[in-house]
Structure formats: structure tokens, C-alpha cells
Specification:
Elements lengths: L15 H16 L2 H9 L5 H11 L12 E5 L3 H12 L3 E5 L5 H6 L5 E2 L3 H7 L2 E4 L13 H4 L6 E5 L8 H9 L3 E6 L12 E3 L8 H19 L9
Parallel strand pairs: 1-2, 1-4, 2-3, 4-5, 5-6, 6-7
Length: 237
């Protein structure tokens, strides 16, 4: 594109809050077994009295756990990862993060008591939840595979609202079936995942808010204006 004289812009961080909120929703859905509970409730039959009795007798199978005191592992501490880390701390969670290329700007925005992991493996061994905020590259493809899943705490939860391909889905399903993983929540449905009882798949909703779309439009318009006024693009080249 540069050789052709075409200027390329992007809008990093425009959807950061939208993705952060979806990560928190995913953590709550998994911890409280809300997907399974919703499916149970929609399948109830009979009159209201009978449904009420089924609810009281069946709800014990959906007992979950609360977030405070649990450890959230955040892989990738850019615009989204920092917001996720800070929000989880505000909810009373412990947070451990890993990002070997974290910028000074991101580090300044990060809550001071977020712990630093020495490696992906180090983070996986300590976290109850793991969320990913990295691009899909050769280095991150199948970052979570069968070997790394064995390093995780038994009963941990995977949250992937970054990119399809970061997690080896076949390995994740095998870990769910073996009880190594408690749940897997992601934004990338497939035939393998969509009907699994311990998987919640959403239709790529990470940036799907009206606010994120407005933020993106504003950032792009500002970039175009700066370029036309002979200023170097902030988020492009």
C-alpha cells in the first residue's frame, strides 16, 4: 500500500470498552453457569406450579461461584487488556498479566497491584480465568494447546474475545470433557463448539455496540483530517 502511495488508517482502542464489558459478561456467564441454566429454564414444561417445582429441584445443578478472590490472567495488555485488568481488580479479583511488548502508555494506565507473569506458562499455572487480547500471528496461533492446558489449574475458565485460532479448540474440548477446564467462552462459533454443554459461543459480538461504532468513526475522521492538514497519521502510515 505504501508503494502505491495509499495511506492506511486504523482505529485502535475504539472498541476497547465494548470488548471489556463482554469479557466481564463472559466471566459471569461461566462462573454462574448461566448458559446451562437458561437452556434448562427454556426447556421446562407444564403449568406454572409444575415449572416452579422443577426450578426448585433442578437449580442445584447450576451452583456456581463468585469472582472476588479469583485470579484473572490477562494475556496482552494493550488498550483492551488494560481495561479488562483494571475492571477485574475493581470487582475484587486478583489479576496477573503478561505482555512482553507492553508500552509505557499502557503501563501507566494499569492498576498498580496487577501482578506480572514471567511467561504465558507462568500465567496459566496461576489463573482461574484466562482472557486473551492479542492479534492472531504465527507466534499466537494455537497459543493454548494440549500441552499448555495441562499447566492450567483444574477447573479454570478460558475466555477468547480476541481472534479465532489463538486457542486449539480440539484441545480445549478434550480438556472440558476431562474436567481439566470448567468452561470455555468465546466469540467464534463452530460445529465443534456450538453444542458443547460447557461452551458458550457468541456471534463475534466484541465490538458490536453503537458506542464502539461511533468511537471508530470519530477516530477515523480525526485521522483523515490530520492527514489532509499535513500532519502525520497517529494510527497509520
Amino acid at each position: 500500500m505504501s508503494q502505491r502511495g495509499i495511506v492506511v488508517f486504523n482505529a485502535p482502542g475504539a472498541n476497547a470498552n465494548a470488548v471489556k464489558e463482554l469479557v466481564l459478561a463472559g466471566a459471569l456467564i461461566a462462573a454462574r453457569n448461566l448458559g446451562q441454566a437458561w437452556r434448562f429454564a427454556t426447556a421446562l414444561e407444564g403449568d406454572d406450579s409444575g415449572i416452579s417445582k422443577q426450578v426448585e429441584s433442578g437449580k442445584k445443578q447450576f451452583v456456581g461461584f463468585e469472582l472476588p478472590g479469583r485470579t484473572m490472567g490477562v494475556i496482552g495488555l494493550g488498550a483492551i487488556g488494560v481495561k479488562v485488568a483494571n475492571a477485574c481488580r475493581a470487582l475484587g479479583m486478583k489479576v496477573i498479566g503478561y505482555d512482553p511488548t507492553i508500552t509505557v502508555q499502557s503501563a501507566w494506565k494499569l492498576t498498580s497491584d496487577v501482578q506480572q507473569a514471567l511467561s504465558v506458562d507462568d500465567l496459566l499455572s496461576k489463573a482461574d480465568f484466562v482472557t486473551f487480547h492479542v492479534p492472531l500471528t504465527d507466534a499466537t496461533a494455537n497459543m493454548i494447546n494440549a500441552d499448555r492446558l495441562k499447566l492450567m489449574k483444574r477447573g479454570a475458565i478460558l475466555l477468547n474475545f480476541a481472534r479465532n485460532g489463538i486457542i486449539d479448540d480440539q484441545a480445549a474440548v478434550a480438556a472440558l470433557d476431562a474436567g481439566q477446564l470448567y468452561a470455555y467462552v468465546c466469540d467464534f462459533p463452530s460445529n465443534l463448539l456450538k453444542d458443547h454443554p460447557r461452551v458458550i459461543t457468541l456471534p463475534h459480538l466484541g465490538a458490536s455496540t453503537s458506542e464502539a461504532e461511533v468511537n471508530c468513526a470519530i477516530m477515523v475522521a480525526d485521522e483523515v483530517r490530520d492527514y489532509l492538514e499535513d500532519e502525520a497519521p497517529r494510527w497509520g502510515k
